[in-house]
Each structure stands twice: as structure tokens, then as C-alpha cells.
Amino acid sequence: MKKRNLLMALSVTAVTVITATAVSCSDDDDVPYVNTSSDNAIRFAAGTEFSRAGDITTNNLTEFNVYAYTDESSGPNLFMNNVTVSKTGTNTWTYSPLQYWPANESVDFYAYAPTTWVGETGPLLPIAYDAITGDEDIVYAVIPDQKGNTGQPNAQVIFNFRHALSKLTIKLSSSDAKLKVVVTNVAMSNIMTKGNFNFPSASTADPASPETVGTWTDQNTPYSYILHWSQALSEMLTLTQTPTVIAASGMGRGGTMFVLPQPLTYRSNGNGNDTYIAVQCSISDVASGEKLWPNENTPKDDLAQGSTTGDGILRFPLSTSKYSEWQPGCHYIYNLVINSNDDMGAIEFGTPSVDTFIDVETSYQ
């Protein structure tokens, strides 16, 4: 149950069945009301693409920041400098001091939330970001080439925010009632935590495309997340047939995470830069109580050295034949269904599939 057991022994091939489903979800039903008086002031409203627990949505977005530039022959000219826009109790968006549309010029608007992750660097250069905590959802929006209409109603900028990060949920279960699977530790290896975000060039209100979706470059600083760490026998997890999200406990991170979009590598069975989930566990027969895995056929590299409960390590690749990278704005749900190991019988592989954007759910068995 020691931490070093989990971090040093992430190197076993697991019996897997991979499936994937995807569900999109709109949150456009509650776009805040915008004052439509006919003066030439610049006004804002905002909506977000999706509604998920823990995400930034139209309903819980109460503040965002705005940069704006006019397009002059010499290049972009700063027009609004990191202005904070807040939602009032009457469901309108306000900021101070009030700005007015410039005559005969178009304006490019960039917005983001929360109000700290872009900061003084602005949106025109790559933005360094560190996602190591995994608990922050960040969103962005772009509306280029806007012009006010003096004396006309609805001279407003309505942002559609996109999620900049990927979302990750990991579930555990065992569907074979004849087996007892007890999990001691769970970790996720070689996840890049730092990178540079690049705002898109076109409006985020348009359909997703390379021009309307922000990109990440230079992902770096790999990190191993401890998702569950049993520090006592009472904290070990006995899996049931119900897929359960690994909860945060003790030293374990657990829960849903927001991670950098990044390539996922699985080539060398846990060596090098492979990205995978490692589960330290034991599998027993319910009727007899006999331990089935690990056993005398289990390779040494698959044993959790120093484990007080004689555990082995199962490794589950984060990449599949359908996708080999995490995309921004996608929620990846990994269902790890642990029923057996290759030391116990034949390995069976299901057919992977991925449906439409946004949730990607993967099960291993």
C-alpha cells in the first residue's frame, strides 16, 4: 500500500473490452438578457457550449475578461485592456468605464474565464498554462470584425465560450459476481501538465473548425497522478457491478479532472512516455476465497513489489484504436471493468467505437 509501489510498478497489460459512446449537450436556453437601447455603447452577453457538473456554463458564468483590438494598417491596436465584465442581479452584463464603438473601424474581441488564466500577456500570443491541479475549467471566446451601429438597437457582442481543456472521469467496476476484486491504489502516468494555448482566429460562435477552436502547443512536464491511495485496509476498494467514479480520499486525487489536450502514447508496455492508468489490486474467487491473481504465472514486473497484500498491477492504455489524443471540449470517461487477467484465461478484445462530440466513454474488461 506504499506510494512507491504504485509509482514504480505501472507495467502490466490488462484484459480489455473497449467501448465508447458520446452525447452532446446544449446550454443555450438561458442566455442572459442584454440591454437593447439604441445608443452606441458596447454591451456584452455570453453563452457556453455545454452543461456538465463542475463545468463553467451559461448558468454559473458570472464574470469574464475582455481584450479588444482595432485593426489598423500598422497592426492590431489595443482598444480594451483586460476589462472585467460582470453579471448583475438583474441578469445583465456590465463593465466600467463604458466603451463606445469607434467610428469607421472594426473591433476584434477576445474573452476568457476565469479572470486569471490569460492575464497581462493578452490573447494574441501563446498563453502559458499549468493544469497540474486538474480542478479548473477554463473557457475562451472570440468575436472578430465587429462594428457598432450608431442609433440602432442590439449593438452588442454576444460571446460563445468554448472549453479549452479536456475533461476526464475514471470509473471502476467488476461485472463478474464470481470474482472479488479489491483495489489498493490507482494512478495515471505521464500526463502532460503544462502547455501554451493559442486563441483561434475566427468566431467561436461558428461551427467547430481549425479556425474557430483554440489549439495547444508545446505540452510538457509529465506528471503521475495518484487517483486513489489506500493508507489502511479499510480504505481499499472492493469493486461492484456498478461503475463508480474514483473518489478523492487521503492522498488520492480522485474525482473528475480537467487536463491539457494532448497526444496519448502506448507503445512500450509502460516504458518511456506511455500514458496509462495503473490499478494495484488482487482478484479472488468469491466462493472459495482463493486468490486467483496475481499467482505463480504472473511476471515479476507485474507484481507490486513490497505490497503487504500481495497485489499485482494492471495497466490500461489511455489511447485506443479510435482516438490517440485528448481533444479540447471533450469529456473522456474511462470505465475500467476488471474481471480477469491474462494469467487467468484468454484475453478478449471488444470493438472500439466513438460517437459524436462531446463525451467519450471507454470501458476495459
What does this protein look like?
The model is unreliable at 1-38, 345-349 and 353-357 (pLDDT under 50). It contains 1 helix and 19 strands. 41% of the residues are buried. The strands form 3 sheets. A 7-stranded mixed beta sheet has the order 1-8-7-5-2-3-4, with no helix packed on it. Strands 6, 10, 11, 12, 15, 16 and 17 form a 7-stranded antiparallel beta sheet that branches. It is mainly beta and 365 residues long.
In helices, the fraction of residues equals: under 10%
The quaternary organization reads as single chain
- In sequence order, what are the helices and strands, one letter per element? HEEEEEEEEEEEEEEEEEEE
Q: How much strand?
A: 35-45%
Separate helix tally: 1
Class computed from helices, strands and strand pairing:
mainly beta
Main sheet summary: 7 strands, mixed
How many strands in all? 19
Mean pLDDT: 82
Low-confidence stretches: 1-38, 345-349, 353-357
Give the N-to-C terminal Cα separation.
24 Å
Report the radius of gyration as a whole number of Å.
Answer: 24 Å
The dominant shape is elongated
Strand order of the largest sheet: 1-8-7-5-2-3-4
Main attributes?
mainly beta, seven-stranded antiparallel sheet, 2% helix, disordered N terminus, seven-stranded mixed sheet, single chain, 365 residues, 1 helix
